[in-house]
Fold these 2 entries.
Entry 1:
Amino acid sequence: MHSSSYFYIIIWFLIPFLFGSGSSSSDSSAKSSLDSLLQQYAFRELTGKRTRNGVPYDAHVPSSLTGVKVSAMILKTHILKRKVCGYYKNFFIPSGIIEEPYVKKLVLVYQNLANWSSFYYPLPGYTYLAPVFGILAYDAHNLYAKYLRDLDIQALEDPISIKFPYVQPAPEGSSPKCVYFYSNNFVQFGHVKDGNICETRVQGHFSVVAEVKVAPSPPPKANDTAPSPSPIS
Ligand SMILES: *[C@@H]1O[C@H](CO)[C@@H](O)[C@H](O)[C@H]1NC(C)=O
Ligand SMILES: *[C@@H]1O[C@H](CO)[C@@H](O)[C@H](O)[C@H]1NC(C)=O
């Protein structure tokens, strides 16, 4: 079977799954303009000098985004499909990665939103235990391109794992969860592996969060709320 057929099968499999447990967020334009801005800063690092494939290049970010870290790495897609790329910053890239639509070379843009995580990815009812890390793929054909649409990548064999070097302890009574922000605006939660690892098969933004439990209000006294029994005549 052609690999793009696999891709569609997996997407069809994912759709009910995402709709089932996901929720859309409303502030998607701030996120996509951030992605687009960071794509331009990342690509800037790849132009005007000789760059090697498979090597991460750290980008400059505007002073208005101090703290955010961005890198870019060019990869040939036939290598991504067949070979384990290993760690690219906090992401372990296994073999079996395909992209849609097909391109010859792609740029993997890495983002670490650091202290801007909850600003760009607010998640009411949850607290961040780690920064938001993002990985997005773009066509490497024109490194001067702006407002590029990200490519869909898919891990067909092992999932891509995201390692969070430091996960803060969860508040009392709450446990850490992986959170997945997909490009199509769905938010999903999953299990944390080995204390600091989340896994994904597609591009997006990822972090570890914990639910913030609202302090339970004291239960109302039985005779405050219970309606007095109506006399039975
Ligand atoms: C993040 O930290 C930098 C300093 O490292 C600061 O300039 C910036 O305003 C902070 N961002 C937020 C959203 O607090
Ligand atoms: C019900 O309220 C009265 C006072 O209004 C109180 O003396 C009594 O202990 C209460 N009973 C229960 C079961 O809370």
Entry 2:
Amino acid sequence: MGKHNLLIYTTIALVLLFLVSRSPNKSQPQETHHRRRLKIRSHFPFSPPSDPHHHHDPPPAFDPLVADIELAREDRQWEHLYYQTHHDSDSDSASESPDSSPEPDHESRPEWEDFADAEDFLNDSERFNVTNRLMLLFPRIDVDPTDGLASKSELTQWSLQQSRREAMHRSQREMKTHDKDGDGFVTFAEYEAPSWVRSADNTSFGYDFGWWKEDHFNASDADGDGRLNITEFNDFLHPADTSNPKLILWLCKEEIRERDRDKDGKVNFEEFFHGIYDLIRNYVEPHDTDEHESDDSNEASAKMLFVLLDKDGDGYLSDVELLPVIEKLHPPEHYYAIQQTNHILHQIHTNADAFEADITSPDGSADGDKDGRLSLAEMIESPYVFYTGVFSEDEDSGDYVVHDEFR
Ligand SMILES: *[C@@H]1O[C@H](CO)[C@@H](O)[C@H](O)[C@H]1NC(C)=O
Ligand SMILES: *[C@@H]1O[C@H](CO)[C@@H](O)[C@H](O)[C@H]1NC(C)=O
Ligand SMILES: *[C@@H]1O[C@H](CO)[C@@H](O)[C@H](O)[C@H]1NC(C)=O
Ligand SMILES: *[C@@H]1O[C@H](CO)[C@@H](O)[C@H](O)[C@H]1NC(C)=O
Ligand SMILES: *[C@@H]1O[C@H](CO)[C@@H](O)[C@H](O)[C@H]1NC(C)=O
């Protein structure tokens, strides 16, 4: 396992620790119903620049209104960081600062002026009425087909749309700082790695990044006009989610470079087995962590896969030979959208089961047939499942927080 995995495990451990320490005091009896607790994200890992081909954005908010609040807050923190780093390094760059009016244009601005008020706003069940929100959102989710049920694929599409929207917002923000002449394109000359990346010691991550290098830039330049428009720039920052074949191949090249411990330019079986294969297996069976039991059969199936991928049979994997599995090594947003949807459905089922067990009222169950399709009524019955990032209920919060571990 590489340092990268170690980092992930460490992060997960920390997150768990954090969650445990924050978990509500269960011994305290509750004053019934949803006591809402505000949990707007207030820490934003600005890791995308340091390693975009391994970076993953936090899960998107289900409700675009919540997303706007979170993004506005994130923007603010980002600007702060931006000014700090740029004032530390060079003082004359103030003129190229991002302008601070990222105004969401698709939905009318709610009644919060400042982000401090945003907390109160979300926490106030009269102003932010989750029932009304879900009623408003449902017709936008139930579109394929419009049949009064939100299917698994509709929910996945919805989640995907939300994460793409958030990603694009971040890319636009990032682009403003690079597009120095403001013509809507970033040229390689305009592009410059953020100073907090440049100053980072690349060996501390176990391999040298190449992300800001010219070949990454060129690969993102789909039409080859020597500059990136916002679409291309967004791809540049999210190569795992691109449909640009040049960029996908670049991702394979990076993967080879990273795994190629003996630096012969190719990946042999050992390098494949201890690195790439683990990722693929995790992708296929996310919960199988039972490594020691089946070491032999593991190696056997790794060998099989290796031989399959090694099309020219030279005993090494090249970048092109990695293409069939690159999506498993760098899962696109769609993968996470499916996970998020499964999680939502799982929560709904769990709630429904608990509800039935407690009250034995069959007609009150959400998605009782568990066919993965939700009616609006079912959604309204478990509204906080859709706002896990923001609220946690006092009851069941142990279940609710699992969400964050996905990423
Ligand atoms: C949110 O609401 C709860 C109860 O309704 C209250 O105890 C809590 O202080 C509120 N939090 C904020 C940040 O307003
Ligand atoms: C939220 O809206 C629904 C439907 O409009 C209404 O029945 C409910 O009372 C509202 N909840 C609150 C807390 O205002
Ligand atoms: C980063 O890696 C490259 C290539 O391995 C190396 O030449 C360069 O000195 C490294 N930079 C730092 C700051 O360590
Ligand atoms: C990137 O493309 C430009 C032309 O647009 C070319 O001059 C440059 O050599 C290319 N760089 C790399 C690393 O391929
Ligand atoms: C950016 O350029 C690509 C072609 O490289 C094109 O498909 C895309 O529509 C352009 N995006 C915008 C926003 O113009």
